[in-house]
Amino acid sequence: MGIEVEVSGQSCGALIRGVDLREELSPAQVSEIRGIWLDHLVVGFPDQELNCEQLERVALYFGVFGEDPYLEGLADHPHIAEIRREADETSSLFADNFHSDWSFLPVPPVATLLYGIDIPPVGGDTLFANQQMAYEALDAQTKDRITHLAGIHSARLGYAPQGRYGESDAGRSMAIVYSEEAMATHSHPLVLAHPETGRKALFASGAYTLGIDPNSLDAAEMTAEEAHELLIGLFRHQAQGKFVYRHSWSAGMLTMWDNRSVLHAATGGYEGHRRLLQRITIAPFDQPQPVST
Ligand code: SIN
Questions:
Q1: Is 278 in the pocket of ligand 1 (CB under 6 A)?
Q2: Which domain covers residue 17, as residue numbers?
Q3: What is the CATH number of the domain that holds 135?
Q4: Whose CA is closest to atom 8 on ligand 1?
């Protein structure tokens, strides 16, 4: 049986069946999956039963392990982090605002793989907002206005000592390590042309983009107020329902998304149930493999 694709019919997203990820994949299979992923931006592989080694092997078909600040990896698999919420946990939901993973890094991860282990019977979907579609839907004047602007990205709202997951965050079961380093900033263009497909996407999020870089081309004429209003308008625009795909999980499902093309956000609604997934971020093939500590 060959690879089968079930398209979500929403703004992005597809399920892939007919491939056993426990087995090594041929270059032709990897290339076919890569093509499907680039077309649909988020792909889910239901009914897989992967151990950590198999999960890592699958990840390495698509890039090298990414740098993962602020989340402690598993002791024997440092590139795998757990997204965990216990049944009786009362801390705020993790990552429930739209973001592109670690966009504050100089080289953010191209992809994230998330593998479902304990999946609650209700709730816990992940939302994906297609940022290629969001860019396309902008009027010509706004596209022109933002083409040469850069956004200032930072982890501080989440991972600095004063941030959401910082020193006052109590009772969380996830292994989050907050740090002063989260105060650092890094700028990226507001509009990214995809290096493989050339399709343009908005690259900013309310979670990690703090402002518009005043040093970016075209920012000179803009007041701080105008820059703020522009950014808030983009945040509102990019998360509209018409750009969103709602991804439902099942135990044994591996999901891979393109951080250059979609934003994602966790959802709740599973109080009283445990939710546990394993996550690997992937950097481009030309990046040096981070040294695990
Ligand atoms: C994440 O942002 O990595 C987690 C998404 C989720 O828990 O659905």
A1: no
A2: 4-283
A3: 3.60.130.10
A4: 266
Residue 199 CA to residue 235 CA, distance in Å, equals: 20
Q: Where are the alpha helices (DSSP H) in 217-273?
A: 224-238
* Sequence-ordered list of residues with C-beta below 8 angstroms from that of 162, at least 6 positions apart, any chain: 156
Examine residue 18 and state whether it is found in any structural domain, yes or no.
yes
Q: Ligand 1: does its nearest atom lie under 6 Å from the Cβ of 83?
A: yes
pLDDT tens by residue, 146-187: 999 999 999 999 999 999 999 999 999 999 999 999 999 999
* C-alpha–C-alpha distance, residues 226 and 23, integer Å: 53
Task: For residue 285, name the pLDDT band (cuts at 50, 70, 90).
Answer: confident
138, 184, 193, 268 from 202: Cα distances, Å:
10, 22, 9, 26
290 belongs to a structural domain: no
Does a structural domain hold residue 24?
A: yes
| Total number of domains constituting the chain | 1
